[in-house]
Write a structure and sequence with these properties.
Elements (H helix, E strand, L loop, with lengths): L1 E5 L5 E5 L4 E2 L6 H17 L5 E7 L5 H12 L3 E7 L6 H6 L8 H14 L4 E4 L2 E4 L14 E6 L13 H8 L2 E9 L4 H9 L2 E7 L6 E7 L3
Parallel strand pairs: 4-5, 4-8, 5-7, 8-9
Antiparallel strand pairs: 1-2, 2-3, 6-7, 9-11, 10-11
Helix pairs in contact: 1-2, 5-6
Pfam families: Methyltransf_30
Organism: Pedobacter kyonggii
GO molecular function: oxidoreductase activity, acting on the CH-NH group of donors; tRNA (5-methylaminomethyl-2-thiouridylate)(34)-methyltransferase activity
Length: about 220
């Protein structure tokens, strides 16, 4: 069962009773999503692009997606967004988050009306936005597509250690283009070693509220 829970910045998150963890930071769901994934990931990578492809590990509530959708729409960037989710939330639960308040009404409407179908097949939300949410685990996911950015937003290593093994990190990184960017809210010595072993350059950035640091890594060219 998932329980709506307020966070410190006034935005809500969900508490997953099965996993024993919140979907977003209790210090601020909205702040964390903007800081880690939009600012450090999307804005950093899309500076000179007119089209961008994002691979997200853990669609969850869709917060990272709607913020990415709005940013790309505002900046005339075509967004191709793929986000795997092993346990998709019902539409009614996503609507209860209150996240409609954080994006333009048209962005939310395009998202929520297409969400159920995006779980089954790729959907064209607008001329500038495509969304697909494969109902699968990262370990089982396969694709020939290569992405510009990975949002790694799995539950923490304490609650979902299998999502942070060297093997699964390498599998995720295999979907990035040369020069592509991997961002996540976490940073540990083990994670840094796993990423470096895949041929990445590591950056330690200031973390979102409640976290001292976060990780951004860039895949070697060629």
């Amino acid at each position: 069962m998932n329980i709506i829970t307020p966070t410190a910045d006034g935005s809500n998150t969900l508490y997953n009773e099965t996993i024993g963890e919140h979907y977003h930071s209790k210090h601020g769901a909205l702040q964390e999503s903007k800081h880690v994934f939009i600012d450090a990931g999307l804005k950093f990578t899309s500076a000179n692009l007119t089209e961008i492809s994002i691979f997200e590990v853990g669609f969850g509530t869709g917060l990272n997606f709607i913020l990415s959708f709005e940013y790309c729409a505002a900046n005339n960037i075509k967004l191709n967004y793929t986000s795997i989710e092993a346990f998709p939330l019902p539409t009614a639960v996503i609507e209860q988050t209150g996240y409609a308040a954080y994006v333009l009404e048209v962005i939310w409407a395009d998202f929520i009306s297409n969400y159920p179908d995006a779980l089954k097949a790729p959907q064209k939300l607008t001329s500038l936005c495509n969304l697909e949410i494969p109902h699968t685990t990262l370990a089982e996911y396969q694709s020939d597509q290569k992405f510009d950015v990975i949002y790694y937003d799995a539950f923490s290593v304490q609650h979902q250690p299998e999502m942070w093994s060297d093997e699964i990190i390498a599998h995720a990184c295999s979907f990035l283009k040369p020069g592509g960017v991997f961002v996540t809210y976490a940073i540990t010595g083990k994670l840094k070693r796993a990423i470096k072993a895949c041929g990445f350059t590591i950056e330690k950035l200031p973390g979102a509220p409640g976290k001292r640091e976060m990780l951004r890594a860039t895949k070697a060219e060629g």
